[in-house]
Amino acid sequence: MDLPAQIQLLIDHAPHDGITPQLVTAIAPVLNAIAQKLRHYQYYILQNTDSDWVLTTLSNRTNPGLEKQVIYAFPSLQDVTLTLSAGLDPQITATAIPVTHILFQLVALEPVDSIVFFETPGQTTNAVEIRRVDMEKQIQQQLQRSRSPGQIPPNMA
């Protein structure tokens, strides 16, 4: 599924609460711009039996006190199989998820620092890390740009 279709699917499946569809529409340029930098339209995400995404804690080699929580996104099911055969819990499964949906979820995943997208099937050396804080900044900038002057409350200091 191409990127515009993925964005439309996000909008169509957003809660009809009067806010979320407009929010997705407003941040769609950010999701699209980041997704265009990645090589694949979908990635496989590891999930536990409750369908929660599997977090991996990474420690800094020179400063073991520095840790971050990441989610790995694999380009193919074969890459997941290789990872799972390396000793992960056999109850872990993988689900193919459109790239824009992964990026959209990243913003809501508070304990997650980054998603690491493996770009080349069969290799774990070529990866792109998308940090949640960087994406949040881009989304805030986009929301500020998309807000018209009439929408800013007059009592805003």
Provide an overview of this structure:
Strands 1, 2, 3, 4, 5 and 6 form a six-stranded mixed beta sheet that branches. Residues 152-157 have low confidence and may be disordered. The protein is globular, with a radius of gyration of 17 Å. It has helices at 3-13, 20-36, 77-84, 99-108, 132-146, and strands at 42-47, 56-59, 67-74, 93-98, 114-118, 127-131. It contains five helices and six strands, in the order ααβββαβαββα. The protein is an alpha+beta fold and 157 residues long. It has a single domain (3-148), classed as Uncharacterised protein PF11572, DUF3234 (Trna Endonuclease, Chain: A, domain 1), CATH 3.40.1350. 39% of the residues lie in helices and 22% in strands.
Describe the SSE topology.
Blueprint: H1 3-13, H2 20-36, E1 42-47, E2 56-59, E3 67-74, H3 77-84, E4 93-98, H4 99-108, E5 114-118, E6 127-131, H5 132-146
Parallel strand pairs: 3-5
Antiparallel strand pairs: 1-3, 1-4, 2-3, 5-6
